[in-house]
Amino acid sequence: MSEVKAEAPKPRWWKPLWIAALLLTTVSGAIGYFLLHVPIERAVSAVALTFFCIGIAYYIRVMPSMKVNRTLYILLGITPIGFILWVIWAVSGIGRLITDMVGALPSLLISWILCYGIGAFIGDRIGRRRNYRLPLSP
Fold first, then answer.
1. Which of 125, 135, 133 lies closest to 68 in space, CA to CA?
2. pLDDT of residue 23
3. How far apart are the first and last CA of the chain?
4. How far apart are CA 46 and CA 44, in angstroms?
5. Which of 4-18, 28-42, 58-72 has the largest mean confidence?
6. 63: left (phi over 0), alpha (psi -120 to 50) or beta
7. Do 29 and 43 touch, CB atoms closer than 8 A?
């Protein structure tokens, strides 16, 4: 698979968007600490986690690549599709049947591996159909 690079010009509001996101995160952390009396370690960890997530979002949108996009499609397949399959597994009675046969922990591991594995496969298939291009990508 070859790498996909975005060659389209970025909108004018692109750079101020990322700067505003970082500033608002910092301000909300300060407000949480000074006005809402949130413990300092909780405020700092929340701001750090938000910075990390903003960094991932920036990387995904500004420097897209085929590998990152494929990983995102697989993760997006695991999260909603795998979770829905896992809920159907639990509600349908299959989970109870397997639990009675092998025990609680092995049944839980089997259900996670099966449902989330199928979700990852479906996400990869959806991504392959779209040539691993994210929505609203240039």
1. 133
2. 94
3. 18
4. 5
5. 28-42
6. beta
7. yes
Q: Are 134 and 60 in contact (CB under 8 A)?
A: yes
Alpha carbon distance 85, 52 (integer Å): 30
**Which residue matches tokens 């159907």?**
88
Model confidence pLDDT, tens digit, residues 83-129: 999 999 989 988 889 889 999 999 999 999 999 999 999 999 999 99
pLDDT at 11 over 80: no
Which of 131, 132, 123, 11 shows the shortest CA–CA distance to 60? 132
Distance CA 125, CA 73 (A): 9
The tokens 């750079």 sit on which residue? 15
pTM comes to 0.67
Hey, how many other C-beta atoms are within 10 angstroms of the C-beta on 49?
11
Could you tell me if 74 and 120 are in contact, meaning their C-beta atoms sit under 8 angstroms apart?
Answer: yes
